Amino acid sequence: MLRPQSTATRDLVSLDGVWKFALVRDSLETEAPWTAALPGSLEAPVPASYNDIFLDPAIHNHVGWVCYQRRVVVPRGWTRDERYFLRIEAATHKGRVYINDTFVTEHVGGYTPFDAEVTQLVRPGEAFRLTIAVNNELTNTTIPPGIIRVEAGGQKRQQYFHDFYNYAGLARSVWLYSLPTKHVADVTVVTDVQGATGILRYDVQTSELGAGETVHVTVRDEADAVVGEAAGARGAVHIDKATLWKPGAAYLYQLCAEVRSAAGAMLDTYSVATGIRTVEVRGTQFLINGQPFFFTGFGKHEDTAIRGKGHDPAYMVHDFQLMDWINANSFRTSHYPYAEEVMDFADRHGIVVIDETPAVGLNLAVNSGFFEGVGKDSCTWSPEFINDDTRAAHAASIRELVARDKNHACVVLWSIANEPSTNEPGAREYFAPLVALARELDPSRPVAYINVMFANYDDDLVADLFDVVCLNRYYGWYVHTGDLATAEAKFEAELRGWDRKYGKPIIMTEYGADTLAGLRSFYNAPWSEDFQVSYYNMCHRVHDRVPAVVGEQVWNFADFQTAASHVFRVDGNKKGIFTRDRKPKTIAAVLRARWSQKLLDQGYAGTK
Ligand code: GCB
Fold first, then answer.
1. Phi and psi, residue 292, nearest 5°
2. DSSP 8-state assignment for residue 591
């Protein structure tokens, strides 16, 4: 799915700003709030989650629909032989779009974009009323899943199985854009390297073309010089002495796809930033451009005060500055696809990304204790909980993630789920078709799932289906709490077990300890900054003794908000290396020194 772009043939109008806002207290259908100006005087920023904007607990805790509304004027210069669309980059978790009194489209899935075609409903130079209804409900057939309880007073209460706050609303940008009738509909670029030659294999999908109308592809380097051209909707461009996209040394070519008329006139043009690089798993190595790669960095979240999951370019740039400072070369988009600006930034700055679907919390074993009996006696993979409908939603989330992010050089690994219950019967039947789907959609990248500590190498039922072993482990924190000597021995024994059984690269995708910034302890008490340092030193001794470990992404980049029902969290999860407002804890300097060496070992220039 191509992100809207302003080009010689396409216009793009940002609809970000402050919109009218209202809760839907009863039923969206009966209230039909899109048919008139929204009631009340509330206004909400777009992009932002709405939950922490207002002081009213009824909004903060609302379960159900809300509406955003604004007036939009279609640029008067737009012509009638174009098509017009709205692009909603994220409506968490379900969105419905209305133009004046007319329903246009619905989309399910809170972290991937969708379009609403409005060509027949609006006119150049005229205004229309745009209403976007957004629903935050999670059920056993959504990704991520949840359970809604209705209390005695009729009040809905949302429970969910993941450890981050269920922020909702329009957390990313909304656009109005125009598209020529004859247009580039999709572009897929897969790169390869042969000797000094970079190869861009491309596939351009178009709207239906007439006789003599053709597709033409031009590749430009960073100096804007044309370095390759090709005719036809499918083909390959070879670039001699190509500059590769490398971790820490990004280089992007622009592949420009054009639709041309029979007379050679440009009917549409669209550019895709393309980094030439290869990714391969060989034995216990993870290779980028044929070189062994060691991941340093983070599991992150899109989470900041007030905005919730709202995309904010200031935080984005600052977070990348912090990653640069600490010598992180990678992160995982735990636990959902991030804003496309983040992926573009990672492409431009050579940061490697493990790209994850929103499939988190498919595990009753982890969560049954927290939720008043939910799941105590049930199986995760069952008609009552994660069933065929959930899997269909999960498949859709994989399709949408790959469709959106397939051309990003930064993405080197797909993660199709975080901590599913992979030692329960039914896990293999559930996952085998999803892995096959991911491979079919993108044969060029390895596929992983992120393993939870309850599913060990001797009872996990799915690890052989995947290319890499990604482990979340909390030895010394959730188990053997504070006892780092026992933790060290058990952790090492487990890693060696995975290595023995699977012989695949192991990436530590989570390990960490909650740490209250400023809390110090002579006795290495859990929650202190001192303990966090000792804990990480312990883990790193183990990583360094197990050669199959090819990556360490600590949990988490920054402290982040969680559900109030999680009574073991005080104002959120505190496993951040940075606080929620991005101040370093003591551990930050320790990681920085360690990862400096890791990067030097991989031939990075100029580590901090
Ligand atoms: C995990 C989850 C992550 C949690 C983390 C924790 O294993 O993947 O979402 O936040 O543990 O801190 O408990």
1. -60, 130
2. H
For the stretch 32-47, pLDDT in tens is 999 999 999 999 999 9
Across the chain, mean pLDDT equals 96
Tokens of residue 177, six digits: 């854009």
Please list, residue by residue across 279-313, b when 16 or more beta carbons sit within 10 angstroms of its beta carbon and e when fewer do. bebeebbbbbeeeebbbbbbbbbbbbeebbbbbbe
Q: How many CA atoms lie within 13 A of 354 on its CB side?
A: 34
Contacts of 94 (CB under 8 A, 6+ apart): 106, 107, 108, 109, 110, 134, 135, 137
**Whether residue 374 has pLDDT greater than 90:** no
Known catalytic membership, residue 419: yes
559 lines ligand 1 (CB under 6 A): no
Q: Which helix (H) or strand (E) holds 323?
A: helix 313-325
Ligand 1 geometric centre to CA of 163 (Å): 6
Measured from the Cα of 562, ligand 1's closest atom is 10
Please compute the mean of the pLDDT values over residues 119-133 and round it to a whole number.
97
Between CA 177 and CA 11 the distance in angstroms is 6
The CB of 560 under 6 Å from ligand 1? The reply is no
Which of the following is catalytic: 258, 302, 400, 510?
A: 510
Give the contacts of 400 (CB within 8 A, at least 6 positions apart).
Answer: 1, 109, 112, 337
Asked if residue 375 has pLDDT above 70, the reply is: no
Which domains, ranges and CATH numbers included, belong to the chain?
A: 12-179 (2.60.120.260), 184-279 (2.60.40.10), 291-601 (3.20.20.80)
Whether residue 368 has pLDDT greater than 80 = no
Among candidate residues 258, 419, 488, 552, the one labeled active-site is: 419
How large is the angle between the packed helices 340-349 and 313-325, nearest 10 degrees? 40
Nearest-angstrom CA–CA distance, 42 and 59 = 11
Q: For atom 1 of ligand 1, which residue has the closest CA? A: 472
pLDDT in tens, 519-567: 999 999 999 999 999 999 999 999 999 999 999 999 999 999 999 888 8
**Is this model's pTM higher than 0.90 or not?**
yes
CA distance readout (Å), 191 to 168, 415, 437, 474, 513: 36, 21, 21, 37, 39
Q: Please enumerate in sequence order all residues whose Cβ is within 8 A of that of 391, keeping only pairs 6 or more positions apart, or say none.
A: 430, 433, 434
Q: How much is the pLDDT for 607?
A: 67
Rounded Cα–Cα distance for residues 328 and 355 (Å): 16
Ligand 1, atom 3, lies closest to the CA of: 163
